[in-house]
Task: structure prediction
Amino acid sequence: MRILVVEDEPVLALRLQQTLEAAGFAVDVAYDGEEGWFLGDTETYDAAVLDLGLPKIDGVTVLRRWREAGRTLPVLILTARSRWTEKMAGFQAGADDYLTKPFEMDEVVYRLRALIRRAAGHAQPELVCGPLRLDTLAGRVTQDGVPLKLTAQEFRILSYLMHHAGKVVSRTELLDHVYDRHFDSDSNVLEVLIGRIRRKISGNLIHTVRGQGYRLAEASGP
Result:
């Protein structure tokens, strides 16, 4: 899953990036509202972490512009402002969740995972696709109760497919959601990783739909 972090404090931005990458996310970082608005408007993200007190363009304006342009990505607001009127302004602009500084880094991870899961239409924290189970809170996949040993990239790919089980996911869509904006989309890395995932899970669960992309079976059949 791919996250946009818009935070002007370099130390905090770095901590967020490192924490989210360690949790299995691909992360892009913007340090002001203008860059953050542009990335959110032109790139594909599963969620955004957005500070309100940003230079150039404030966070509420960034969020309002995204929503007016039809950008539906879940947005977690971060702010040092604790007054309810300021929080309400964020929600009125289209925020999905809110954290007041200081906060625990793990809470950012859990809240983002919950936002992404609900945006994909899943109410429960555990996603089940035949013998595969994804614990979205712990960030762990098991098959028949046995944990799968996945790299960060493999986990992002399988997690995205499980969030959209039964649907055909194009190569472009997968690349947009599992890699940051600096990734070379012309490489064959995705195909190599799909092959590795197939070897790690038993059964014919990931199907190639010729000319369209990949589909993860909702059950263990073809």
Residues 33 and 207 are 41 Å apart (CA to CA).
